[in-house]
Every structure is written in structure tokens, then in C-alpha cells.
Amino acid sequence: MEDKLHQSQLEQDSEIRQKCEAKFGEEKKELQRHCKHIKKQKVADLMAQFPEEPLILEIGTRMLERIDDSQKAALREIDEQTEKKLEEARLRIVAENEEELAALQENLDQAMQKEAEKVEALMNKQRDDVLARKKENMSERMKMVTGDMTE
């Protein structure tokens, strides 16, 4: 009887924690979206002040793209953190003894490592893309400078 009562209390605690973690994750995502909106609005306002300046428009457009890219990465990270915390809450109720908990934790760690590797690969790809764009821009600028000097 006491074990059933304890198990019921654990289930209730786990359910409450899962709801709280999910709500907290959504609030973090909403805050992240709000910050993105503010950043984008500042860039758009600056671009609107100088609509005839192609360099400002070009840089502003790139900044807006980077803001969107960083937003996506931040939201993915928030989702991963929330899922990890939800999984921890579920583990507390599912595991009946220390051996099961250890096995479940090991599986969770392996899954999180795989996700971390995926995220790292994605971040490396994004970094490589940014570096390639920077190199391309630098090359174009060098061509413009050397073209100006030869004239």
C-alpha cells in the first residue's frame, strides 16, 4: 500500500515537472522570438534610414539572414534542452531501481551525444558557409580595389 502511494506521488511529481519544463521551454522560445524581432526591427529601421545606400542594404540583408539562422539554432538548442529535462523527469518515474536508471541514463547519454554530434555538424556547416561567403566578399572587394588601382 505504501509503495503504491509512493509510486502515485512520484507519478504526480513527474507529471507536474514535465508540464513545468514544457511550459518553461515554450516561454524561453517566445523570449528568443521576441529578441529576434527586436534585432530585426533595428536593422530594418537602419536600412530604411538609408534606402539609397546599396552597401547598407546589402549588409542589412545579410544581417537579417544571420539573425534568422541564429534564431533557428537557438530554438533547436532550447528544444533539445527541454527534451532532455522532460526525459529526465520521465526517467525518474520509469526506473524502478538503480540498474534500470543507469541503463536508461546511458541510453539517454548516447542519444544526447548523437544529437550533439548532429548539432555540431550543422554548426560547422553554417560556419563553413559563413566563411565561404566572407572569402567570396573579400575576393570581390580585392577585385574592385585592384580594378580601381589599374585605372
Summed up:
This protein is mainly alpha-helical and 151 residues long. The protein contains three helices and no strands. Helix 1 packs antiparallel against helix 2 and helix 2 packs antiparallel against helix 3 (98-150).
> Low-confidence segments, ≥5 residues, pLDDT <50?
none
Kindly state the percentage of residues in helix: over 70%
**Beta strand %:** under 5%
Number of helices: 3
Structural class: mainly alpha
Explain what this protein looks like in three dimensions.
This protein has 151 residues and is mainly α. It folds into 2 domains: 1-94, no CATH class; 98-151. The chain is 94% helix and 0% strand. The protein has 3 helices and no strands. It starts with a helix and ends with a helix.
How do the strands and helices of this protein lay out in sequence?
Layout: H1 2-49, H2 54-94, H3 98-150
Helix pairs in contact: 1-2, 2-3
How would you describe this structure in keywords?
3 helices, 151 residues, mainly alpha, 2 domains
